Amino acid sequence: QVQLVESGGGLVQPGGSLRLSCAVSGSIFRLYAMGWYRQAPGKQRELVALIARAGSTNYADSVKGRFTISRDNDKNTVYLQMNSLKPEDTAVYYCNAGLSVTPARPGDHWGQGTQVTVSS
User: pLDDT-based confidence at 102, cuts 50/70/90?
Assistant: First the structure.
């Protein structure tokens, strides 16, 4: 019954910014670790960023210093602030939730994905 709904994707020029949101319902949000994954055409889905229930974060090397994951437990929402976007960031971005989220083992719950396209 856990539902994750992403929003905020779109078309942006290189160097621009987007903020993705993921609203979570049907769960006790504060008990879940959250992650953002992305998948480009023909490529494997990869973990971009994760945030633990206590707020610690981790990022893929490719986005360190540019992306920030955060959570608002009062709003049951996780965010991904994406700055200095590059064409290589173009992908479908998926929100993920679970009792544990790691690069090797995603959580059990996925959003539908939101398209991010970085192009001039």
Answer: confident
Distances (CA, A) of 106 to 11, 14, 47, 99, 103: 27, 29, 8, 9, 7
For residue 111, give Cα distances in angstroms to 39, 42, 82, 120. 13, 20, 18, 28
Which residue, 31, 60, 21, is CA-closest to 44?
Answer: 60
Supply the pLDDT for residue 83: 98
Closest CA to 24 of 9, 7, 49, 38: 7
Is 1's pLDDT higher than 90?
no
